[in-house]
Amino acid sequence: QVQLVESGGGSVQARGSLRLSCTASARFATMAWFRQAPEKEREGVAASRFGGTTAYADSVKGRFAISRDTSKNTMYLQMNSLKPEDTAMYFCAADSAFKIQAALLQADQYNHWGQGTQVTVSS
After folding, report:
1. Cα dihedral sign for 82, 88, 89, 93?
2. Rounded to an integer, what distance in angstroms lies between the CA atom of residue 120 and that of residue 105?
3. Per the CB 3.0–4.6 Å rule, which of 22, 41, 44, 53 could disulfide with 92?
4. Are strands 117-122 and 10-13 parallel, antiparallel or unpaired?
5. Whole-Å CA distances, 26 to 31, 72, 82, 95, 103
6. CB 48, CB 75: distance < 8 Å
7. pLDDT tens across 54-101, in order?
8. How far apart are CA 82 and CA 36, in angstroms?
9. CA distance 33 to 117
10. What is the Cα–Cα distance from 86 to 73, expressed in whole angstroms?
């Protein structure tokens, strides 16, 4: 059974930093981070595909960085200059297929999901 386990969430003040981790029980071609705030739709934050292709939501470009350690089947999200609007539950997602660039931040493209880790940013 595929497992994705997120960690690293927490509470931080605005302009602070956090690093999220997602460890998978298998290797996946495409992995991504999504987030969902209360009463809002789930949105793609960042994605990474084997070969080096990445994608970022406009709202996090220049502040967040996604990376992967394939030897550990682990994906990271370094989040800097955090804002209160970044407050959400962050989910790790993975899929065995190579996704095209345009699909990297679409939630319906991913078959496997973690349970989420909460990030709260206070002003």
Report:
1. negative
2. 22
3. 22
4. parallel
5. 11, 9, 30, 10, 21
6. yes
7. 999 999 999 999 999 999 999 999 999 999 999 999 999 999 999 999
8. 16
9. 11
10. 26
